[in-house]
Amino acid sequence: MHRLRRLAAGRLRQSELDILQTIFDTATAHDWFDTCEYSREGFAACLVGLSQRSIRVQQFEVIALLLAFNEFRNDMSFGQRSKLKALYDRPTPA
Q: Is the pTM here over 0.70, yes or no?
């Protein structure tokens, strides 16, 4: 939750963060999801970005799972992984 709250920077209500956390947990629990920290951070950032569009919760969950499956798989190529790491491997504030 801390990750999503930090990335949302106060733009989302607690109920919205709870929904995002459930979707995040569902996607990252799949064995195809790359569990590296930069994949988790990248997916969380994508969820926060997507949440700012007016999409119904059920549609949002489907879109989020497809995004995770497409962009954050554990079998991605070295080039994809390098790009992802460069985008999302940022130090987390204490």
A: no
Cα 20 from Cα 61, distance rounded (Å): 9
Spatial distance between the Cα atoms of 81 and 91, rounded to a whole number of angstroms? 17
Report the alpha-carbon distance of residue 88 to residue 71 in Å, rounded: 13
- Written as one string, the DSSP assignment of the chain is -HHHHHHHTT-S-HHHHHHHHHHHHHHHHSTTB--SHHHHHHHHHHHHHHHTS---HHHHHHHHHHHHHHHSBTT--HHHHHHHHHHH--PPP-
Block mean pLDDT (10 aa), the chain, length 94: 86 88 91 88 88 69 79 76 68 52
- Residue 7 C-alpha from the chain's centroid: 10
Side-chain-side CA neighbours of 53 within 13 Å: the count stands at 11
* Closest listed residue to residue 6, CA positions, set 44, 43, 63, 58: 44
